[in-house]
Amino acid sequence: MENSENKYKVILYYCYAEIENPDEFRDQHHMMCLELDLRGRIIVSKEGLNGTVSGSIENVDEYMKRVKADPRFADTDFKEDFHPSHTFKKLNVRHKPEIVHSSLSHINPRKKTGAYVEPEKFREMIKNEEDIVILDVRSNYEHELGKFKNAITLDIDNFRDFPDKINELEQYKNKKIVTYCTGGIKCEKASAFLLEQGFENVHQLHGGIIKYGLEAEGEDFEGKCYVFDNRLSVDVNKVNPKVVSECFVCGTKSDRMVNCANPTCNVHVPICEKCGWEMEGACSPECKEHPEKREYDGTGYYQKKTNGYDPYKGFQGKLEKSKL
Predict the structure, then answer these.
(1) Which whole-number Å values give the CA distances from 55 to 33, 41, 62, 233, in the listed order?
(2) In UniProt terms, what function does this protein have (predicted)?
(3) Which domain, by its residues, includes 293?
(4) Disulfide engineering: 199 pairs with which of 134, 194, 235, 298, CB 3.0-4.6 Å?
């Protein structure tokens, strides 16, 4: 939520659209982000664009304007939030085979995907429709922190494992299914895969949990939503919030998401504030005594070593040419 202290904006977005020269596009996009002093993670692929970035409100607004000015990305749905500072320490724009690693590269959501359900409609559905299946397609560490009330979750460590769970979902084949994820991108392919496998009544929450929180107050989302920046998690529910996760160390109710201070473990788990300080950010006595344990500052977030990171490396000449 915007207030006088929140002078930065963080956005989450994706767009499936054909990019003929992803390497060239990646370079151009990287330079544009440098010009606007944006930080975050952006994936460029032949199948589209996926990113979450932070920057000043003015610069992020300019970035969204430029992205939408490209006809390929004109219908990009940006999920916007506000923050006192950057939510990332550096910028990474990478070219990858898919904009989300899915093991479903043959699926093109532009041609086939589940029907969109807008946030307010979804709120009505989960309140009034009894014979409906709400399917969480995220990984274990995400849905263990928070999920929709009565949602079906899957035991997966990565989204690429989703297709392996199709047999477990056969029991819902004749029901109305609505998939959801953080920002919507995983549902594009998950819902399309279900349709491909013979499921007929398949829908998806448009814009995911984040958009639902912004437009429908997050009602009946229990717990917090895991996010992929240094905030680690965000509040979603403004109506009937509930803590569902438990401290990994002592078992008390806690929704403080922490990365284990032992970098060789680095597990993402809830740890209450008391245990966080007592365990120095570690998830176990063994990790607490690990010789490489990182210093805990109370947040449970650790910036990866930059190893001489320079966002302008290899781009100085290109930037100068672009100004001519």
Answers:
(1) 10, 12, 10, 19
(2) Catalyzes oxygen-dependent 5-hydroxyuridine (ho5U) modification at position 34 in tRNAs.
(3) 245-302
(4) 194
